[in-house]
Amino acid sequence: MFKLARSSSKGVLPAIFLSTRPHSTAYNLIEVGKFTAPKVTGNYDCGQLFLHKKLDYRGVILFPWVARVFSRNNKAFPSLFDSKLKKGEVDDIPGFTKESYQTLIYYQVLLDFRDCPIVSQREGITFLGQNSDNKFYTIPGIDYISHEDVLPYEQSESIRDPIQHNLFQKFLEKRTDTNEVTSYHSTSLLHQFHEDNFDCLRLRDVHSQTTNGVKITVYSFFMGCRSETPTKEHWWRYSILMENVGDITVQLRERTWCIFSNADNKESVTGKGVVGQEPVLAPGQCFQYSSLVSLRSSAGHMWGTYLFEREDRKFINVSIPPFLLVSKVNEPQA
Predict the structure, then answer these.
(1) 3-state secondary structure string, 73-100?
(2) Taking a C-beta distance cutoff of 8 angstroms, is the pair 162, 172 a contact?
C-alpha cells in the first residue's frame, strides 16, 4: 500500500514522502523529493516532476497546451450561449469576446501507477483505431493538469525511478550534469507521439461552473468515426473534475445528461452516480473521471445536472455547463 505525505520545516520548502505499509500496520517513510517554488510566470519544461495539487498523485510533464477556459461564473460570459444551446438553436449562438474566457496553460502528463489508489479512477486517453476494425485503444496513466495545480519537486538522490509508468523511459531521457543534478528530457518517440496524435490529444476549450458549493470542470476530445455500423458514428471522449469548494461534505447520487445532435436528435440519460461510483467529497476534495459519447452527426453538444446529497440530508443540484462536441472537419477556428 502506498500513500503520499508532505512535511515541512519553518523557512524550508517542504519535502514529499512515499509511505509504504508492506507487511505491518507501521508505515515506512521514504523521501522521494523536495518541493521547489512554483512558477508564477513561464511554463514548466518537459520532464518536470510534480505532485497534483488537488488529486495528490505524482507525475511528470510531457508537453503544454494552450486552452480557453470558459467559466459560467464569469460575468462577461454570454448567458445566451447556454440558453441557445439548450434550445437547440445552434445556428444562432453568440460569439466570444476576449473578456468572456481566460487563456491558460494545461499540461499533458504521465502519472505514477503507484498513486492510482489515490486517484478516483486511473485516467487515460482513448483512441479510435483508423484501420478496418475501428476498435478503441486506451493508454492508461495519461492526464491533463492545469498550470496552477502543478506542485513541482526535485527527486531525491536515493530514488532511481521517480515515476513508475511503462512509457516513462520511452518518452523521457535521463541526463546528469557535472554537478550530479538529474533532469529528464523528451525523446524522439515523445515528439512522434505528439505529432501523430495531435488532433486526438489537443486540449482546446475547458468549461467550468460552480453551483451550490461544487465546481464542475469539463473538456472533450474528438476521437473519430466508426464506419462499420449501419449509421456512421462519431465518437468523443470527455473528462470531468468535480471539486467541493463549499464547507459541507456532499455525496454524488445521480446524473442527468442532455445530449443534442446537430441532426436534430436530443437524448436524455439519467443514472445512478458515475462510472459505477457515488463519490463522497469532503470540503476541498475532488473526483475525476472520463467517459465516451457518440453521435450520428459530426457535431453536437451536451450539458447536464448532478444530484448531490449533503451530510445534513438535503439534496442539491449542480450544473454541468454546456460544451460543444466538434469533429476535426467542423472545428471552429481560433
Answers:
(1) CCCCCCHHHHHHHHHCCHHHCCCCCHHH
(2) no
Quick one: how far is CA 306 from the chain centroid? 18
The distance from CA 265 to its chain's CA centroid, rounded to whole angstroms, is 28
pLDDT tens-digit readout, 239-274: 999 999 999 999 999 999 999 998 768 899 999 999
d(CA 209, CA 303): 11
Going by C-beta distance under 8 Å and a sequence separation of 6 or more, which residues neighbour residue 20?
1, 2, 27, 28, 30
Q: Cβ contacts of residue 313 below 8 Å, gap of 6+?
A: none
CB–CB of 100/78 below 8 Å? yes
Residue type, 227: S
Output the nine-digit C-alpha cell for 241: 473534475
What does the alpha-carbon distance between residue 142 and residue 111 come to, in Å, rounded to a whole number?
6
Residue 101's identity, in one-letter code, is Y
Amino acid (one-letter) located at 323: F
pLDDT in tens, 172-189: 999 988 887 889 999 999
Place of cell 476549450: 205
Which residues does the chain have with pLDDT short of 70? Answer: 1-28, 117-123, 130-133, 228-230, 264, 328-334
